[in-house]
Amino acid sequence: MNAAQPVKLVLDRVTKRFGDATTGLLALDKFDLSIDENSFVALVGPSGCGKSTALNIVAGLEQASSGIIMVDGREVTGPGRDRGVVFQSYTLMPWLTVAENVEFALIDEFDKARRRVIALEHLQLVGLGDFAGHYPSQLSGGMRQRVAIARSLSYRPKVLLMDEPFGALDAMTRYQMQELLLRIWDEHKLTVLFITHDIEEAVFLADRAILMSARPGRIKLEIAIDLPRPRGNEIRTSEHFQRLKRELLSAVNAAGH
Amino acid sequence: MLRDLSALKENVVSLASFVVIIVIWWVVATFGSIPAFILPSPVAVVSATLERAVDGLLWSDSLASASRVLIGFLIAAATALPLGILMGASPLARAAAEPLIGFIRYMPVSAFLPLTLIWAGIEEAQKWLLIWIGTFFSQTMMFMDAVKRVPVDLLNVGHTLGFSKAKILRRIILPWAMPGIWDALRITLAWSWSWLILAELVAAGMGLGYRMSVDQRYLRTAEIFSAVIFIGLIGLASDQMMKFAGRKLFSWAEGGKL
After folding, report:
1. Does residue A69 sit within a domain?
2. Which of A89, A148, B26, B112 is deepest in the core (most CB within 10 A)?
3. What is the pTM of this model?
4. What is the ipTM of this complex?
């Protein structure tokens, strides 16, 4: 981590209670987080720990009960194009081709020709340059998520929010997608908040892994992932990698989950 | 799972069931001791159809009926579309209108017939009104349903891209709902024919339903058979055309949406 990088995203005492204001389920309790520009932070935790709630609040899709979200020092209250989101479920528009799905993010921003150029650029970035004319139903799950990533990058959001984007993929595809994501991140320098329940995924991808405990969602452990970059799949078997993984795992077990 | 028949086998079996029914009908009508005004033979029905086709009555009646169906159906669709979409997209509109429309939908359409005569007389407007009453309420509910089914994650994509409500409606909700809307139109077009025939049987000076009511007075049963079958054929043809067009227009929706 580079200490000179400015802070990009801040969550300041973000609290979320579902239902009744005093007795409702406390999903997040005074949750603090700050992410430096161009750093990759993974939020890890068991399902129901509030990590997706945290992401939805940052994305502006859910309202916090209290607390503040800031991007570049400015408070955000609703969804906006400064934050791109890649969802766990497949969210391509099935009536549009792959290229049109990327262009979808650019409607009313550029003319048609310019949109197409940007779309193709980003499809090449995720290795789908040859699939511009295909429809989502003709693609595998991994390819659909790559298109979703291309769509999210195409309009240059300041922060990329990823909600278990590879959660529905098989293990081999997941490894490939993780490598691809790191390559894009290395080349383009992005600020990423990545939600996952997979500890290995967090260790492989992130600069910092933050382990959450459930009900209420709080930070249980935060570790810096000081593995060298660029990282390839071979790093997974290294002693360093395994030690970081064990550290997170033992904290999970201590939590009694 | 049961294995599907081959396409050829399926067609042969389907065709055979038609042939069997017609043969039984022909045998019973020809060799049974049933009077022709109760059960005319298939031959008599075919010749009655040909006669009407040659003297032109079949075509003028069909045209009169079809244009009534089309106009009534289009008025219903044009009024049901905005309301159904609004109800699908807005929980407030849904809460306001769904119980009322759901209730009206369960009233028998035929019971509105006397009212349509009082309100709209015996001319064209009365036919359109009965078709409208018979299809508008169901169409609205079906359109609403198609719109309501848009996955929330797709809507969220629109939100995170900073789309306005109008843009989400135009770019996400409507394209998603179109195949369902088209299907609802196809189904209710067939209903429109039923309501039209009902209206024509009661009051009209032209049209397939009117012709049947005259034929009934003169016990021209073969002509009535002919008209019933002909209406069925028109319905089948329009249904197949809509299905075909739907498959062409919304090929992306074939075999599940996501």
Report:
1. no
2. A148
3. 0.87
4. 0.91
